[in-house]
Every structure is written in C-alpha cells, then in structure tokens.
Write a structure and sequence with these properties.
RNaseH_sf, EC 3.1.13.5, alpha/beta, Nucleotidyltransferase, domain 5, Ribonuclease D, nucleotide binding, 8 strands, two-stranded parallel ribbon, 3 domains, flat, DNA polymerase, domain 1
Length: 403
C-alpha cells in the first residue's frame, strides 16, 4: 500500500488500567456481552524480571471496546476466560503469550495467530507493526516493545502503545483469513493454530547451564564446572530477587571466569564484567562458586558435552555417517523446493528437526506410508505429511537405488 496512515490513538481513547475486582467484573460483563473474535496481547518484562509472567493483558472485542488489565493486581482472569468461552481469540505470535496467559487463567479454546498466518501466506516480514502496515496500510509505533512492563505506574505513552496493539488485530485477522481461504491454505492454518494452542509445556532442560552463551570456548571439565557453579548461583540469586539472570551477571562474565579461574577477590574483579555494581554486590558468592568447582573430585566434574536424544549437529554428518548426510541433503532439497512452490519458509512447511531425525534414522523400509508415519510421530501436521511424505520418500528411495 502506498498511502500509510499513522495509527496514533485508540478509537475510544486510552482506557483506564483494570486493577481491582470491581473493575474486572465490569470488564467480564462487557466482554461476555460483546460479539465476534477477541483480540488479545500480553506484555512481559523480558530482560528485566526472572520469569515470563504477564505484567499487562490487553483485550478488544466488538461491543466491549478495549480493556487493559494489570494481572499483578488481578492475578485470576478465569472469569474473563469463561466469559469469552469458545470465541476465537486473535493473537500475534501466540506461542509467546499463551504460557503467561495460562498462568492467570486465560486459556483460549480457539485461536487465530496473525504472525503464523503471515508466514503461511509468504509475507517476508511478519512482525505486528510490519503486518499492520503491509496489510491494512496503518502504521503502529513499536517503540515500547522491550520496555520494563513491571514498572508501576505504567506511563501513559506505554498504555497507548499497548491499547493500539489490539486496536486493529481483528481487522488484520479478517484480511488474512480471506487470503488463507483464497490461497487454499486455510485448512493448513487451522491445523497449525490447533497445534500451537494444544502444544504441551516444554520439559525442563537437562543441564540448562550448558546454554550459557560462549560456552564453546570452555575446553576442559574443571572450567566447565566453574560455568556450572556460577550459572547455578546466578540463577538462585536471580530467582530470589525476581531479576533477569543477565542483569545479575552476564554470560560473558561466567565464561571469562571459567577461562581465567581467579582465586582471589582482586583477581575476580580484574575481569571487566565483574566490576559492574550488580556483579560486585555478590562477589563473595561468585568466589564461593568458583571455589566449589575447584574443589570437586574428578568424578563429579561435568562431561564435555551432554548426551542428546537426537542426531548430531548436521555439520558432523559427513564424517559420522556420509550416507545419512546424503539423505539429509536430498530431503532438505525437497522441502526447500516445496516451500518455494507454496511461498512459505521451509521451517513452516516441515520442522527442520523432523527432517534431521527422519534422515538420521529412516524407516527400515522406505515408502510413502512409512515416511508419513515417521513424520507424524515426529509431530508433523497432516497437511505437512500430505505435501512432503511422497516426494521425500521418492528422493530417499532414489538414493538407495543409486547406492
């Protein structure tokens, strides 16, 4: 669209923040009496607070207007959830917001994800602001997306931003719904929405400290123990103080300490990252953690890499199993060609992990049915199986024949 109109103010102005039971009851009644889909968004304090809880929930529905709810003051939205009932809930990047909404008792039964719809339709950029501008010709200001939403009271310009995030979400949904229908992708989208909506909560990671950024620089078990002890201490401090771990101590500081193994307070504070006020406040804790790592017997040191339940990194396949590497290349080529044909990212056509697992350990007898069954067991949706099982099986059989 050539003429882009700035979206500066909510149609009914900035609503008051709902922060008590009586005001929440009025919102529940209003949304129960509204009609059509319900636009929903949530603001978190990622990078500021320890967890992923919501610090503001925004909703909009025809006949009800917009509501801004403080879930810290009103931590139970189950009555609002019941009032909305089976109505379709419209979210953007739903997988980010569904967990924190569930924590306050809001669990959609039906959902439309405008970001996921945009991906399936082949939009190159699917951020909410870009989608609203591209599809509706309206410009959203996105300056507060990374703000500390745990701030109280919330500034007026933040509340304006939050209200505008749901202002035209249903209108965006309507246009995308029509495009999905016209392109024959609506059924695919519905399966994707249901998959996101009913995805199980992720299992806690084994050895989460191994995800420390820069850990690849740490080469020996004793230094890895330092990473583990510092990470664990940082996590405890962050959890107790409800602070994002990176604000207590950055990953780079953990890795630097593991590499240098300082033995004294002076040596530790010579590492630049430990001179920050938040790090200095816990300097004795860091020294104690390093001391624990240094005193561990060899039998309790971490192994260099944790065993996984999946295939090795793809860049090692050529050395580990050249035949599997050829299978992976063939399957990836098929998925890339199909994704290009249907105008969507390859990862939305078929999850890369499913492609890797299928080609690392293929069925003993490869044909359309066995590949389809394997893809289903790896979480592929039915529309993905229908599009990819036959051409992938054909490509793998061709490789076997050549071999």
């Amino acid at each position: 669209m050539n003429d882009v109109v700035p979206l500066l103010e909510p149609r009914e102005g900035i609503p008051p923040v709902i922060a008590d039971a009586r005001a929440l009851a009025d919102v529940v009644a209003a949304f129960a009496g509204g009609s059509g889909p319900v636009a929903v968004d949530a603001e978190r304090a990622s990078g500021y607070r320890y967890g992923g809880r919501a610090y503001l929930v925004q909703l909009r529905r025809a006949g009800a207007g917009t509501a801004l709810i403080d879930p810290i003051a009103c931590p139970d939205l189950s009555e609002l959830d019941a009032a909305v009932g089976p109505a379709e809930v419209v979210l953007h990047a739903a997988s980010q917001d569904l967990p924190c909404l569930a924590e306050v008792g809001f669990r959609p039964r039906h959902m439309f994800d405008t970001e996921l719809a945009g991906r399936l339709l082949g939009y190159e950029r699917v951020g909410l602001g870009t989608m609203v501008e591209t599809v509706l010709g309206l410009r959203l200001e996105k300056g507060h997306s990374a703000a500390d939403w745990s701030t109280r009271p919330l500034p007026e310009d933040w509340l304006r931003y939050a209200a505008l995030d749901v202002e035209v979400l249903v209108e965006l949904r309507d246009v995308l719904h029509a495009e999905l229908s016209e392109s024959g992708k609506l059924g695919w989208a519905i399966q994707e929405f249901e998959s996101v909506l009913h995805a199980p909560a992720p299992e806690p990671r084994n050895d989460p400290w191994r995800r420390t950024s820069g850990i690849h620089k740490v080469r020996n078990a004793r230094a890895l123990a330092v990473v583990r002890e510092l990470w664990t201490m940082r996590d405890q401090i962050a959890r107790d103080g409800d602070i994002a771990p990176g604000r207590v101590l950055p990953d780079g500081a953990i890795v630097a300490a593991a590499l240098e193994a300082p033995r004294t307070r002076k040596a530790l504070t010579e590492i630049t990252a430990f001179t920050a006020r938040s790090a200095r406040r816990h300097i004795n804790d860091w020294l104690a953690a390093i001391g624990r790592a240094r005193s561990l017997p060899d039998s309790e040191l971490p192994v260099p890499s944790a065993p996984g339940d999946g295939p090795p990194p793809a860049n090692r396949w050529a050395d580990r199993d050249p035949v599997a590497a050829k299978r992976l290349a063939a399957a990836r080529a098929v998925v890339a060609a199909l994704a290009d044909e249907h105008r969507m990212p390859t990862e939305n056509l078929l999850q890369p992990d499913a492609v890797r697992r299928l080609t690392w350990q293929p069925p003993s007898e490869i044909d359309d049915l066995t590949v389809a069954d394997r893809l289903r067991s790896l979480g592929a949706r039915e529309w993905q199986v229908e599009l990819t099982a036959h051409p992938i099986a054909k490509a793998l059989v061709r490789l076997e024949t050549k071999g």
